[in-house]
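User: Quick sanity check before I run a bigger batch. Here is a single chain. Can you write out its predicted 3D structure?
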Amino acid sequence: MNQKDQFRLSIGLMAASLGLLVVFLGLWLKSAYKEEEQVLQKSTTQAFFTSIMGIQNEAFNELYGRPDLFIWHDSTGKIPPPELFKSDKRILTRHQIQLPRDSNIIISVNATSPAKVIPGDVQGGALSLIVSMVADTLCPDTILSKENNRQVFEIIRDKLHKTMVASAYPVAYKLIKMDGDTFPANTAFLSSKYMDSVTGDSYAVELSEYQPYLMKKILPEILFSVLLLLTISGAFFLVYRSLIQQRRLTDLKNDFINNVTHELKTPITTVGVAIEAMSNFNVLQNPGRTQEYLDISRLELQRLSILVDKVLKMSRFEQGGIDLKPEDLDLKSLVDEILLSMKLQFERHHAKVDFSANALEVRLQGDRTHLTSVVYNLLDNALKYSLESPEIAVSLEEEGELVSLSVSDKGIGIPAEFQGKIFDKFFRAPNGDVHNTKGHGLGLSYVAKVIREHRGQIRVDSSPGSGTRFTIQLPRIYAAG
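Assistant: Done. Predicted structure follows.
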């Protein structure tokens, strides 16, 4: 499996893991929401049935304080014969009840039939019978009337309201009357039902606008899920960015190897040709030609030495940084020496170089060797990335406690999207053929490291086709740390 396939596999695994995490958190939050919904439903049912029991207790307390005789009569005041109490009326009792004042009252109601069994989430009772007894309307021809049913509904509603207010119930609610066991079509969330065994009416509490309350109840779980998702996503993002950087670094290293190999082959081949010429073509008999070949060999070996030295320096930077040896020096004289040493290169490229300084001496504390390499690299880049007859301007200025050095050219320039990357190791701005302009992407990285170690700054101003300007600012006094 190659590196690209490994990269794609890693990204795919991270994406799949993140997706599974999202699914898991979603299911967990849904489960927590359902649990809180069940708790809310149970508490609503408890409050509802507490209200029913409260009505019954109040009714029996009132009945207990009444006269000793209680007569069941119809609406005309007559005692109905027993045969009027048929099973389809859902009332089976005797026609007369006579009790001592301190006796227990027992009312037995048979309200079930084989065709209709009360389900498990329904609590049954005879609340309409008890309410009729309290209101002295307990007669077979009125107990099933609409007026009596409305009275029962209002009593339950008022008692439920008192119970809910006392408990500071957190969501909106209302009492509803149902047709047997059938839920109304527009209800979303109900308590358990209470079924009146006498009339067959069912009552329940409908909740509304409860979602915000439930979301607030599971807010800790939501916050934890969001925090976990953000943490894992952040970790995956860092890993993804690291993989992208590693892939990019791998590509740059491959480009670096290609360029270094190309540059190493050229001087080696040149030196080999020179030695072969001196050995096989009697060049040694011609002192002038011999000296020319020796000079060529020396220059090519010098190029090899510079390349190897840069690679070794970059290796040392990675291991322990730069070992600076600051000294008091005149930067103007140092630039003059560098320009003189590069005179042959300037002449070979037909380059015009202009150097200006605003003082006879520009003194500062710095490492002579590394600052020499910095200036050389900037001038070398100005030559390499200029067109025919390069024009290079070098400016040196004193600015209070700072020294400013700039090197500008009128070459091909650097596109804006690459200007933030040119100081990265191995990076070279794309320009078509890899070997079109010789280089290995180490020079500017080295320059930036040296300037940072001197506690200075470097910036670039460039536009394609108009040239590039590098500006360095160094403190006069070197501060280690």
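The first strand starts at residue 69 and ends at 71.

User: Great, the batch can go ahead then.
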